[in-house]
Request: fold
Amino acid sequence: MLAVVVAGFVSGAVLLLATVGFELVRRVEGFLNIALPQLIVLSGFSAYGFNVLLGLHWIVSCLAAIAVTSVAGVVSARLIFWPMRGRPHYIPMIASVGLAFFIHAMIEVFTGYGVKTLNVPLQETFRIGGIAVAGIDQVAVVIIAALVVVALHFWLSKSYSGRALRAMANNQALAQIRGVNTSYLQYLTWAVASALAALAGTLIAFTARIYPELGWDQVLIISAAAIIGGLGSIYGVMLAAVLVGLTSSLATLVIPSEYTQMVVFAVIALVVFIRPEGLFSGPKERVA
Amino acid sequence: MSTLLILGGLITLMGIYAVAALALNLQFGVGGMVNFGVAAFFGVGAYAYALTVMPASSGSYTYILGLGLPWWAGAIIGGLVSALLAFVVGSGLLRVGGEYLAVVSLALAEMIRQLFINQPAIANGARGLLNAPVPSLDIIPGRAQALFVAAAVVVVLGISYLLFRRVTRSAFGRSLRAINQNEAVARSLGVNVYAVKLKAFVFAAFFMGLAGVMYVWYLSILTPTFFNVNITFTVFIALIIGGTGSNAGAVLGAVVLLGLREGLTYIQVDFITPELLASLQDALQGLVLIVILLFWPGGLFRPRLAVYPPPRSASVAPAVLATSAAGGR
Reply:
């Protein structure tokens, strides 16, 4: 029971990182980037490549994978999404699906089709009364995610670039008039968003297994968290991500694990039908 | 004879995707509804057809129903079940706006796929159903039945093309187009936005289900791979190549895309395994989609607006639309 709760917090923490990256792009650029979850897999598999195929130390290879994936994210924005500015918001969304297919297929071509794990030394486990509760790696994941949340909070609320970013997400033209360097901030947004997805990918590779289909599985669960969190504050999204992680983990206690995704889907459906503005957002602004 | 059969198979496949692309054109090209769940409607139609047409379950594999209806009745039921699903999904999602439709319909296809895999009692799980009945005539000898299927698909395609052309040119189609261009303006002109969208969504879903039925005619087996996301995006790419918003474009896009894709499978290189070929096909499709959206957004056929003046003489309109759209958001 306790182990399941811990597992829920771990998957919630990983999901939180990815969802915040997804939301950053959604708010600044105004479209759903279906390719972002594929960056999770890209980062997981590059960590695998550096660690197992090239034989680097696992910490080094995780950092290298994050760097590679962030660059890939920024390049994809520069080449594909920025030239599509000013067109209906579903055009870049459909293009991002094309990119998702491309990344997914390239991962399959270069690393094969199986399940992969990193070459990480065996972990100690914490025990309470002789029952294994949590591995050190699991605790590390939760701590890393918590540190990232604190860092994001201070970046977005205290620093100049964080506040300028929020201003830009709110009204890009106004931010530009007020002297915000929007093109620099767009690079920053994509770098941070991709780095967050990449961090999520390396953490999954570090604690569990990675496989090429992971990206498609994550798309659904990340957009679920984003919908449940709504368009209010980013903290609502973070809370929603942890809740989705916990729910899908706790649901395995009651119903067979094949149906975990269905539980998540049922939650999305409920939220969309009952409270489409999201659970944690204020009253919806009237439009039109 | 064998070349004729290959050609017949190719025409069947093109026709199937052309019908699906026509349907998607009404939803996405004309109505602006991003339905990432084409595969859900496609697969549900296919399963509804097979389960009503096959004889009652017996022997090695299990499935529900098995009514043993004639093939044409099964095809209509397939379309209707798909339309029913669209009604259930659309009645909720079309109220709340674009992004939710995209995400939830994408999830929907995946959920239904999982359901069919995890519940073998419904339709034999991941192994699927073999030997689903296909339309046939007694007077046609064995292998030439495939040509009869091709002819049936072409007839269905012809009828659906005429229907969709009629619908997009009607007052209904024009109000759908108006909603896509500016929902607030359409609403203030007295268009019942939700009802028009829902009708178009359900009507198009009938034909997506029918496309799934025809895919069973083509393969005569069906597995949960009918719900794969690849099917959705093949249809999207066909429509975007052909020209979003144009019925002729939807058909032509399907012909071009499927022609290219099936042509690729004839490439024989030793080190390319079927698995690798499938991956390369996916990568190529993704790349084609991106390149077309970037450099050739109109596709092969731009939609022809019979009623409106050509864009040059109405140079003020786009700017007005753009500002009001920005304000509307």
Residues 2-30 of chain B form the longest helix (29 residues).
